[in-house]
Amino acid sequence: MRTNPKALTGLVALGFFALMAVVGPWLAPFDPSERSSALLQPPSAEHWFGTTHLGQDIFSQVLAGTRSVVLVGAIAGVVATVLSVLVGVTAGYLSGSAGEGLSALSNVFLVIPALPLIVIITSSLPETSNLTIALVIGLTSWAWNARVLRAQTLSLRRRDYVEAARANGESAWRIILFEIMPNLTAVIASGFVGTVLFAVVSEITLAFIGVSDAGGWNWGTVLYWAQSQQALAQGAWWWFVPAGLAIALLGTALSLVNFGIDEYVNPRLRNRFSMPGVRMRVGFTPVLPQDPKLAQKLETS
Amino acid sequence: MKERILEVRGLNVDYGAGPGSVRAVRDVDLTLHRGEVLGLAGESGSGKSTLAYGMTRLLPPPGVVASGEVLYHLQDGTTVDLLRIRDAELRRLRWSEIAIVFQGAINSLNPVQRISTQLVDVIKAHSPKTSPRARQDRARELLELVGIAADRLHSYPHQLSGGMRQRVMIAMALALDPRVVVMDEPTTALDVVVQRQILRTLVDLRERLGFSVVFITHDLSLLVEFSDRIAIMYAGQVVEEAASADLYRSPLHPYSDGLLRSFPALKGEKRELTGIPGSPPDLRSMPAGCAFHPRCPRALDVCGDRVPLLGQSRDGRSVACWLHPVAVG
Amino acid sequence: MSYLLKRFGFYLLTAWAAVTINFFVPRMIPGDPVQALITKQRGQMTSESVRSLYVLFGLDKDESLASQYFSYLGQLLRGDLGLSFTFFPTPVAEVIGDGLPWTVGLVGITTVIGFLLGTAAGAVVGWRRGTWADSLIPVTTFVSSIPYFWLGLVAIALLTGPGSFFPASGAYAIGLVPNWDWQFIGSTVQHALLPAFTILVSSVSGWILSMRNMMVTVSSDDYVTVAHAKGLPERRVMLAYAARNALLPNVSGFALALGFIVGGTLLVEIVFSYPGLGLQLFQAVGAKDYPLLQGIFLIITLSVLLANLLADVAYLALDPRTRREG
Ligand SMILES: Nc1ncnc2c1ncn2[C@@H]1O[C@H](COP(=O)(O)OP(=O)(O)OP(=O)(O)O)[C@@H](O)[C@H]1O
Ligand code: SF4
Ligand SMILES: [Mg+2]
Fold first, then answer.
1. Which CATH class for the B4-97+179-190+205-287 domain?
2. Claim to verify: residue A219 and residue A95 sit in the same structural domain
3. How far is the CA of B47 from the centre of ligand 3 (A)?
């Protein structure tokens, strides 16, 4: 397989965030909750991202908050992916009313607005922790992938080799595990990445409106305090810019990985034969330049 | 000699550019005369479609025309190279001079537009001065020409059968009275009876309207019946070209002979149906010498070393085979 | 028509599912939130409103679950969503009635405009594949990864402040009374510009990306090549053949994505203190105002369902294959 520069960039960035999730809290120069007398200071050599109204170090908050973000994203991603595979593949493989019923179920969950649903559930829970938040997000956001997987399974089921396996009397389990699932890997992977992105944004959004792990930090809690302490009105841009950029970078990394997978799944999106001077164009096939020197250069390049 | 209308000279077409590209059409020379039906035959994957779309610059990515010329002789006596003219000029020539019926005409129609819209828009694009009424009338007339009731005019493509869609595409190709019609397996989705019926119609129309046809198929027996001249393609090259009667009577190239033995002929002497053993070569690793030699029942020693060139053999026919060395000169 | 009927049936099913979720979720709330409220409000509550809150929270221990469920449904059908804790003793239905028009006006309109703009831009970018237009993709990817509300914060920091044309909060100037005169409408528009711009910037990029991919995919379909072969003007090939077909999956994608999008856009209201459902949701979370939370969830769900139905009608009009003759 050719290396895909987009996916590679994304993976490297993801690796960085994962590393920060592990070592971030130890690397943090300060305890993120610790108050100090340096109130609302702009970035300096001591406080790289400045301080809050209580003198807390924002760099440490962002660094320490990475763990919660990555953790919730990963757990919710795994939960939603497992559910979506169970529901989607079963719905696609079963014919008749059972399949239809599962498919209707995922459509229902797809149409119900996810964030408000997550908000009412999490705020009704006796306690919120990273784990419960991740579980609620995971349990409510599997529907999109289930839908995609169902469609893929439906089309795989009609392939010759699957029909043949069925005619040979192989068990449904064997067929699903060995004939169908291997062909769904890319779709499942892309669904996982998409759900992680959704989960991360949801967790941060929840924290921003005040639903978060008690006592813990994540990028959303940083923004929550920035918003509730009127950071904007006080000109404290450093309070919300780093956390927001961190979200955008993580989001971009995840999207890049997904582009790579998309291009792998849908060859039409691939830009395989890009070369300077030749623009692949539908309807007007490029004609290579006939200048012998140029032509030779292209052939050897 | 009849008047030439389209000449392909040294055409090379690749998939992909730079390293990793494959050459699907190799050094092809072809001439189409006024009013003639030129058949293009060869096994699946021999490059027939690539040649047809390459010379009209309609080959989708990653197709690239690597080199060559496609000379088109206009009615006013001037000649243009289709590979070198500006986009606007090419757009103007398309359909009004050269129309194409694509392989798999099933997907050639825009699924969200009515047949009438798609027939009319091409007329409107090339002769904007016609009245809407006249365009509608023309569209109706075209459908009737290919045997479709005019009340189907306002149908959507999904409401037509596969065969009807192919006929619509043929009707559409004739909309502007083009001088050249390229047909890439226009009848494959149809059963044999309908196939022949459509081809009959086509040949009749050609006689009446006087256009030339490049007719592509892998079914050589069909060509023998309907075309004037036949070019045989193998692995991206033209290996034999002859009047269809000559080719049928005495194929010179062993590959042509094999092709003729692959389909039951409808008339004339019955040949033994042996087909051709083996399969076409991988374009990435073409055999040295004659590309056909690994499969050739009559291969000579020289065949594996040196490439036979297409040229006039001693009996005046075009063939690329060491059994019929090219006349010197 | 059978297509629309089927969709309508599905939306009824979804509405029922949302109502049922809404019935069960409050049963997880620890303690007795109504008792706490009664103590706080000390005798200001009528027995009728206490009863309706008990139905809402399922605190009637002597009733069976089924009969609780039916009294809940009956209450909903009467439009009774309980009393809001925060705006006590205003009924939730009334609170939502105040916020809904603002949300529909801001979030509804900008979401649709964002879709249209993004789709148009995506069509062009996809058509010009292999040119400078490709360099827009990394930018749009980055922008579409930014949460809406954070972009709102940045917009406020950069574009508002003393002397700026853009107000930083609210839906109209303080002191004005909502009515239909020009001064009020002008003020409304002025206040809506920045939040609308925020929503547009974040949502447009997502639509550009998806429409671009659809265009690239559709451009290699046979009928597009045929359109080129017909020598049609480039604009016509692009619009009537490629974009027209690429639009279809984008419209159904729009319907499916609405449930995701409203979540993000509602939060923009919080940042701009825009008096719609999003801000109310924020206040309700802070005050643990469960009846209001549930009411907002229900209303948002129903609005999304309605929007979906409209998208279905649009799809029906766009794709002849879903239309059945006879
Ligand atoms: N996109 C592509 N990339 C690489 N190689 C291709 C591509 N499309 C076609 N080819 C190769 O080019 C060769 C010629 O294909 P082409 O479609 O022109 O054959 P054909 O003679 O029209 O066959 P058929 O009778 O099946 O239509 C084949 O060997 C095929 O493998
Ligand atoms: S050149 Fe040789 S191998 Fe090739 S067709 Fe002729 S006889 Fe056969
Ligand atoms: Mg072909």
1. alpha beta
2. yes
3. 7
| A positions 241-300 inside 8 Å of C (CB) | 241, 243-244, 247-252, 254-256, 259, 262, 266, 268-269, 271, 274, 279-284
- Prediction ipTM score: 0.91
Distances (CA, A) of A65 to A20, A165, A244: 9, 50, 12
pLDDT band at A292 (very low <50, low <70, confident <90, very high): low
Domain count, chain A: 2
The reply to whether C286 touches chain B by the CB within 8 Å rule is: no
In chain B, the percentage of residues whose pLDDT exceeds 90 is 57
Beta carbons of C263 and A113 less than 8 Å apart:
yes
pTM, two decimals, is 0.86
| Number of structural domains chain C divides into | 1
Handedness of CA C14, A83, A126, A120 (dihedral sign): negative
B94 near C CB under 8 A: yes
B296 Cα–ligand 2 center, Å:
6
Q: What is the mean pLDDT of chain B?
A: 88
Residues A138 and A39 both lie in one domain: yes
pLDDT value at A301 more than 50: no
User: Per the CB < 8 Å rule, is C260 touching A227?
Assistant: no
The answer to which of A156-160, A297-301, C320-324 has the lowest mean pLDDT is: A297-301
More confident residue, A197 or C29: A197
Please answer yes or no on whether A248 and C142 come within 8 Å at the CB atom: yes
Domain containing residue A283: 275-301
Q: What is the percent of chain B where pLDDT is above 70?
A: 95
Confidence at residue A1, expressed as pLDDT on a 0 to 100 scale: 43
Q: Is A283 on the interface with B (CB under 8 A)?
A: yes
